[in-house]
Predict the structure.
Amino acid sequence: MTTPRPQVWPSLRARDARRLIAFLVEAFGFEETAVHGEGDIVHHAQLDWPLGGGVMLGSVRDEPGDVFPLAPGSFGAYVVTDEPDALYERAVKAGATVVRELSDTDYGSRDFIVRDPEGNLWSFGTYRGEPRKG
């Protein structure tokens, strides 16, 4: 039995989407799968996470009638990693702002929280969630 492809894609907007994409690739290891836009404007980008899933993002749109208005810096996500220690070092080296240091939790995860240059919160850890019911 194979794991189904992800069908939930968290989305965010950025003041400088191209810079944020470069940061997420360098600091966290997201894979740049698709980036559509012109110049400094990104209409749509897909960044895949190596263990599955990913995020979609684009440039903030300060225009009337924006049907998907998301404030830059208001995003937060928890991302599963098998190598939290190495990822923590990579993120700090790339300039992520540490919110909570790498530590072990009482529920069995090893995790940390950082902010990206846009102010979004990223929590990375080994906790994979509880088994599905049924």
